[in-house]
Specification:
Length: 87
């Protein structure tokens, strides 16, 4: 039996633009993350499947922003640069 394994879009050390896609408010529990929208984030690692519900939220990555703030974000919140995008 052959199973298809989808490769991660992002690799450790890669810096990519981040866009926050949830509740944009100071009252949001992710307000600190919202303040980092449209900034570049460096991928620290892809979170293992045992730590997330990949079927519900998709792949997640731990990232670091220029100011040192670290957070776990979804793959859809990270965008590859045009020349890095896969076809």
């Amino acid at each position: 039996m052959v199973t298809h394994i989808r490769r991660s879009k992002f690799r450790r050390g890669q810096t990519v633009p981040f866009t926050y896609k949830c509740f944009e408010s100071e009252e949001s529990h992710d307000a600190e993350l919202w303040h980092h929208t449209n900034q570049k984030a460096t991928v620290i690692r892809k979170l293992p499947k045992k730590d997330i519900d990949e079927h519900e939220v998709g792949r997640m990555y731990n990232v670091r922003f220029k100011d040192g703030f670290k957070y776990d974000v979804t793959e859809e919140e990270l965008k590859p640069h045009k020349k890095q995008a896969r076809k």
